[in-house]
Design a protein that fits this description.
alpha+beta; 6-stranded antiparallel sheet; 43% strand
Amino acid sequence: MRFAAELIPATLKRRYKRFLADVELGDGSTITAHVANPGAMTGLQTSGARVWLSKSPSATRKLPYSWELIEADFGAGTELAGVNTMHPNTIVAEALTEGVIPELAGYSSIRREVKYGEGLFGKASRVDFLLEHPDRPPCYLEVKNVHLMRRPGLAEFPDSVTARGARHLEELAAVAASGARAAMLFVIQIGSSRGFALARDIDPAYGLAFDRARAAGVEAIAYACRLSLDGVLLAGPVPTLP
């Protein structure tokens, strides 16, 4: 995924109300940028950090600037980390089309935001991707953004309590029990990631839901990204730890 235009450097002053951040531009002016990230963003909201913004071409958008990247040190030196949780689905869509995720290759149809689970938990849900081929069971794929790293090299999810995430796991478990393939793909927007684990101390309920889903046949796949000021690409798989 390439950024549509050159990113704009800025200095982070504060992030607040989850979706807002005040940043200082190079000319000394302060603007408010949109933060497409509902999580805690632990380690990614230090005042004074170098950040990069995109600017929407829309003249009617209330907040034209969006926070995309931050310079952070997770213990192995300063590097770029992605904070925009809207990007992983685009990154994965491109990777699936190009066939660069071997675990998910070989499907002739890739559909996004497909309704499934009618009646499950009282209403139908939407799966991020439905992969299909006439000669094999369909694959229901859910994508999660990962941007938490508390120990060098080890990415973790989630960074805050996510009842919605636990529900997704239960829905995928039901899909797997029906005979279809179900998978979780964790997209890590930190290039130094060498492994992936659950942050069970942050959300024990999610950890239990994950264990039940895995026992039911749901697959867990984690990929680190390669980040630059030009864009974000999947770099390769990392092991998923218990």
